[in-house]
Write a structure and sequence with these properties.
mainly alpha, 3-stranded antiparallel β-sheet, single chain, 56% helix
């Protein structure tokens, strides 16, 4: 390119030198001055074409020269004819870029030629390397024919043609790149409408504002193609240069020793002897390397070529020196030049004795010799072609604008780097960055070794430091954003992916950029330093992972537990992003280590992390307090959102947004049409659409998310905190509530200690009352007692007690949901591992003798045993890896085989609660049970503080409508089924289910109503005001159908009874109730006979109860104990106790 521009720069200066100004001496002598533009020996039209094709030419670095400006300095330049010597203009008067300067016109052709040459080059070099691997020398390879014919082209000659073709391509491409930049420098952007008043506005108009996105993309690609092809050819320099040297040596020796003999024989003739003979001899002697070391006889006394024979040459890998080559080419030019003596009459080419073949060989060798310097300087020439250091220099504009230096954003290499990082083009890959950064290496080498300017190198070094920092930041952003978007898109449900595909918003940004190529660069040469780009990017990207993790944890800190699925999805996306980054080649720490680092360990004396504490805080301050559990849907639903927001635990409804667009759910597909808001965040919107319904409740999916977030290793901590919370609820609230009911607390006889007198624990209806009154009358009588309790709800702390039952039940329901998710996960793992282990039916069900299955029942273990037996039998020395096979099989079986017993969560907690309830402090909760030697009747209807009697009271109140003073819509809406789970769990652990079934007031009223409906006489009715009375068994009873309050109560009681049965059955499946006497009979003599053999009475704090050895714990439901038969009716009901003073 420099040679071409050198000749172009000379042309207008020759015009300027030849063109003369008319002087006085010329006028006196009558001689006219030379007008170069009208000279008869010069056709200026040819030079007009050259000037129009190349209007501006690079001069030095960022300096350029306009050819027409030099021509305009000529004295005889025609005024107004500038347009004939320069490029065309458009309608606005702006110059149109010539085709030789427009990279976009040649870009497609350049890529085609690049692909074709690379394919031919790689194929040929593969063939050469195969020859070298077979042990052939470079000279043998170079002279070996390509085809089967001996006269076909040799491998060396073919390689020379391919190398010259590659050098021509590099020359043309590098010239076009320099021409394009030169045109931009001399034709800046018109910034009159957007002038900023900056000192460097001129350079900004020439570079940054003068190149649009498409031009930057094509310019980048042209630079990359040029440097890539040059690097590909330089990589094979050690293989190519010996072959080129051997081929060059062979061609020169064959020409000088063999092909010149005919010309020498003719020139030696006395009649034709002249300067030609000495030239031919000098040409021969300059390069001839005689096989014998001396000149052969046929070159001493020139004989006819027909008589002297063909002759042989040596095979050497030797190249001529630059001086030899210069002299050789100079003599060759004298021989073949059309103005030399050899081309005039009497020359060697005019002799009839020289054949046309010899003449053709001489001319052909002359043409080959022209390219010998380029082949001889293979590496140096290619380095010159790929040198793009001129793109960095801006000294001319610094001088013009009087600036010390320009901002980094105006540097052309930085503009190209920034374009690569931010474009969405499909043509280039991210490995182009390495090629563009090589521009700084070219510029630094130029200023150090050519210009020898240390201060300029310091400026380049300072810019490289800033550019590299920006490059690492932007590249890390792009890499992380790309893999984060991939993970976020993969985590979307299928329905959301289909919805995005219909909108055409599934294209990931920079999806075709091969990050792996760039991330694998561990030795990037930059200003003489070897930089581990992979290590630097790994550290930066890992900091992004940690920052993203902190944002997720911070989001969890202000989120409710219903949003835990979103946190789980975010962690899964982050985990997948980390895996993608590692697979791409980044050296990141293990994600579990990063996660442990991110959850902020509280200190050396605490083993709890922030996630576990956050789960505990959300469970006990929000979920179990402000949510109602629904047994049918197995979900928690919020009941008091206003109260929850006003509580001491304040929730932040608006979450902080991270500063990086690619955190959390990623940036989503970009919008190339909108340059201001390129990141659409479509993936975040899609995730929010499918996650939003999960924030309205808490269910099994949320429990699965809690397990994923907390982890199996930390889950026992959460379970333990649930157990502690259950103990607190029972000890601090329920114990005091039960203790304050009825008479004075035990052990306090003084009048200062008062209990709740009268009826909170009411007396059971008498038999006569039941028989003589209808369902409505019995309901009204019990309701009146219940109303007195409700009226004193503040004194009894009734709402607090019911809230405590709800909290206990919510915790139990939550643990059951977690247990169900663990069981499902274990079952899933077993189903996955069963094909791997190939467990037989015997292994799954156990042996014939009832023994449990062992690991030896698997096919894997059997195969391992067979292999070991074979080696023991037929081999004296067992290889170490065969002996290690047995340990691997045992590890596999232990890892994948199903557990003998599932991981239990709820049962240990229920056992702990049962132990608590069996302590002495809770003796009054048991009361005088059936089987107690002091019991005088089957059922004691007097007011007692037995738990099942208190729960019966609370169940009845739960079915009533709360008064307005309590500010409750209904007890069920307020407390949900968690209230039932809490009370029935304690009832089950106390073993009072059967007694509760017998003495349950709500159940009694439902059965009484069922009796009335079966025996009522619809034809015999009486109306008294608004009330309608029916006849039931000959007695009048109030018609309940007309009383909405009573009907509502019975509807709620029926639903409560069904839920109660379901909950108690579930509890019996989880943990069996305490053992009770199967049957008890009361005899007239007062003795008690226990039913069932092997049952003995044991005196405990509950009284004499039948006990038997506890069955071992098992996951299968324990058989429900048979209910005790109805006791014989007592002769007369016991009188009611006198009221306490």
């Amino acid at each position: 390119s420099e040679e071409k521009h050198m000749y172009l720069r000379v042309i207008p200066h020759l015009f300027l030198l030849i063109d003369e100004h008319q002087t006085e001496n010329q006028e006196l002598s009558g001689r006219n001055a030379v007008n170069i533009f009208k000279h008869k020996l010069l056709n200026s039209s040819d030079y007009k074409v050259i000037c129009r094709t190349y209007p501006v030419v690079p001069l030095f670095r960022d300096m350029s020269v306009s050819l027409v400006e030099i021509l305009k300095r000529c004295y005889h330049f025609p005024p107004g004819s500038e347009h004939k010597w320069t490029s065309d203009t458009d309608s606005d008067g702006r110059d149109i870029m010539p085709s030789e300067y427009d990279l976009q016109q040649h870009w497609a052709q350049t890529r085609e030629r690049y692909d074709a040459f690379v394919a031919a080059w790689l194929s040929f070099m593969k063939h050469v390397r195969r020859k070298r691997q077979n042990g052939a020398s470079p000279s043998d390879i170079a002279l070996e024919p390509m085809g089967e014919e001996p006269t076909s082209m040799s491998i060396g000659q073919r390689l020379s043609e391919i190398v010259l073709h590659g050098l021509r391509l590099l020359s043309v491409w590098s010239t076009r790149i320099r021409n394009h930049i030169t045109w931009k420098y001399t034709h800046p952007f018109n910034s009159a409408s957007v002038a900023t008043g900056e000192k460097y506005q001129a350079y900004r108009d020439a570079v940054r504002d003068n190149l649009d996105g498409s031009e930057l993309t094509v310019l980048t690609d042209m630079i990359v193609l040029t440097k890539s092809l040059a690097g590909l050819m330089l990589r094979e320099e050690s293989t190519v240069v010996p072959l080129l040297s051997a081929t060059m040596y062979r061609d020169i020796q064959a020409f000088s020793q063999i092909h010149l003999r005919e010309a020498l024989f003719f020139a030696a003739d006395k009649k034709n002897r002249g300067p030609t003979l000495s030239l031919l001899e000098a040409l021969r002697d300059t390069m001839a390397d005689w096989p014998s070391g001396t000149k052969p006889p046929n070159h001493v006394k020139y004989l006819s070529p027909k008589k002297s024979g063909a002759g042989n040459t040596l095979r050497r890998v030797v190249v001529p020196t630059e001086t030899q080559l210069y002299v050789y080419r100079s003599i060759m030019d004298l021989i073949v030049d059309e103005n030399s003596a050899t081309m005039k009459s009497g020359g060697v080419f005019t002799s009839r004795f020289i054949s046309k073949d010899t003449e053709h060989l001489i001319v052909e060798h002359s043409e080959k010799a022209f390219f010998y310097p380029y082949l001889l300087g293979y590496g140096r020439v290619i380095d010159g072609f790929k040198d793009m250091g001129d793109l960095l220099f801006r000294e001319y504009y610094i001088e013009v604008t009087r600036c010390v230096q320009f901002p980094l954003r105006l540097s052309l290499p930085y503009i190209l780097v920034d374009n690569i990082l931010h474009r969405n083009s499909r043509i280039n890959t991210m490995d182009d960055l390495v090629m563009i950064l090589d521009i700084y290496n070219d510029a630094a080498a130029s200023v150090l070794y050519n210009m020898k300017k240390q201060f300029m190198f310091n400026e380049i070094e300072a810019e490289v430091q800033i550019v590299f920092q920006q490059l690492v930041l932007q590249l890390a952003d792009n890499v992380y954003a790309y893999h984060k978007d991939r993970a976020a898109y993969d985590a979307l449900p299928k329905e959301q992916k289909l919805a995005l595909s219909k909108k055409g918003k599934t294209a990931l940004p920079i999806v075709l950029r091969h990050f792996e190529v760039l991330l694998s660069q561990q030795n990037v040469e930059l200003l003489g330093r070897s930089i581990d780009l992979n290590g630097i990017l790994s550290k930066k990207v890992q900091s992004y992972v940690m920052e993203d993790l902190k944002h997720i944890i911070a989001r969890f800190d202000v989120a409710r537990l219903t949003e835990v699925i979103e946190i789980d999805v975010l962690l899964k996306i982050l985990r997948a992003t980390h895996a993608n980054l590692v697979s791409a080649g980044l050296q990141l720490d293990d994600f579990e280590d990063l996660y442990k680092r991110g959850v902020r360990r509280l200190g050396c004396f605490s083993f709890l992390d922030s996630v576990v504490l956050r789960v505990q805080e959300a469970m006990f301050s929000d979920l179990t307090v402000w949510f109602a559990f629904n047994e049918t849907s197995q979900q928690f639903v919020e009941t008091d959102p206003d109260a929850a927001l006003q509580s001491e635990f304040v929730w932040k409804t608006k979450k902080s947004r991270p500063r990086q667009h690619y955190f959390l759910f990623g940036s989503g597909p970009v919008n190339p049409a909108d340059s201001e808001e390129r990141f659409t965040r479509e993936f975040a919107k899609a995730h929010q659409r499918w996650l939003r319904p999960y924030t309205r409740y808490f269910g099994a999916e949320h429990c699965r998310a809690i397990i994923n977030i907390v982890g199996i290793s930390q889950l026992p901590i959460v379970i333990r905190s649930c157990e502690q919370r259950l103990h607190e609820c029972i000890d601090e609230t329920l114990y005091d509530f039960v203790d304050m009911l009825g008479n004075k607390p035990e052990g306090h006889d003084d009048d200062s200690v008062q209990g709740i007198q009268g009826f909170p624990v009411w007396e059971l209806p008498k038999t006569g009352t039941l028989v003589n009154n209808s369902t409505a009358m019995n309901f009204r009588r019990i309701e009146a007692n219940a109303q007195r309790v409700i009226e004193r709800h503040d004194e009894l702390n009734l709402v607090v007690v019911m809230q405590t039952f709800r909290e206990i039940g919510n915790i139990i329901a939550l643990l059951r949901l977690i247990q169900g998710q663990l069981d499902a996960e274990e079952l899933h793992m077993y189903m996955l591992s069963a094909p791997f282990l190939q467990a037989s039916a015997k292994a799954q069900s156990g042996g014939d003798d009832g023994t449990s299955a062992t690991a030896q029942d698997t096919v894997l273990e059997s195969a391992c045993d067979d292999v070991l037996k074979q080696f023991d039998q037929f081999s004296q020395h067992m290889p170490p890896h065969i002996g290690y096979l047995g340990q691997l099989c045992d590890s596999a079986v232990n890892a994948y085989a199903p557990l003998d017993q599932n991981a239990l969560i709820l049962r240990p907690i229920l056992d702990e609660l049962s132990t608590l309830l069996n302590t002495k402090d809770y003796q009054h909760w048991h009361g005088d049970v059936v089987g107690n030697p002091s019991a005088t009747m089957a059922i004691d209807s007097r007011p007692q503080r037995q738990y099942h009697r208190i729960w019966s009271m609370l169940s009845f109140i739960f079915c009533m409508e709360p008064p307005e003073s309590m500010n409750l819509k209904s007890f069920n809406d307020k407390f949900g089924d968690g209230f039932l789970w809490g009370g029935l769990t304690l009832l089950h652990l106390l073993g009072q289910r059967q007694r509760f079934d017998i003495l349950n007031l709500s159940k009694f009223l439902l059965e009484l109503r069922e009796f009335e409906e079966s025996w009522q006489d619809p034809s015999n009715t009486r109306k008294d005001g608004k009330q309608i009375f029916l006849t039931v068994g000959g007695k009048e009873a109030m018609n309940l159908a007309n009383d909405a309050a009573i009907e509502g109560f019975f509807g709620r009681s029926l639903a409560l009874l069904q839920t109660t049965e379901h909950i108690l059955d579930s509890l019996e499946a989880d943990v069996p109730p305490p053992e009770m006497i199967a049957a008890v009979r009361f005899h007239p003599d007062g003795s008690i006979i226990g039913g069932g053999s092997g049952v003995k009475l044991k005196a405990t704090r509950r009284g004499s109860v039948a006990v038997s050895p506890r069955q071992p714990a098992a996951r299968s439901p324990a058989p429900k104990p048979a209910p005790a038969p109805a006791p014989a009716p007592a002769p007369a009901p016991a009188p009611a106790p006198a009221p306490a003073p």
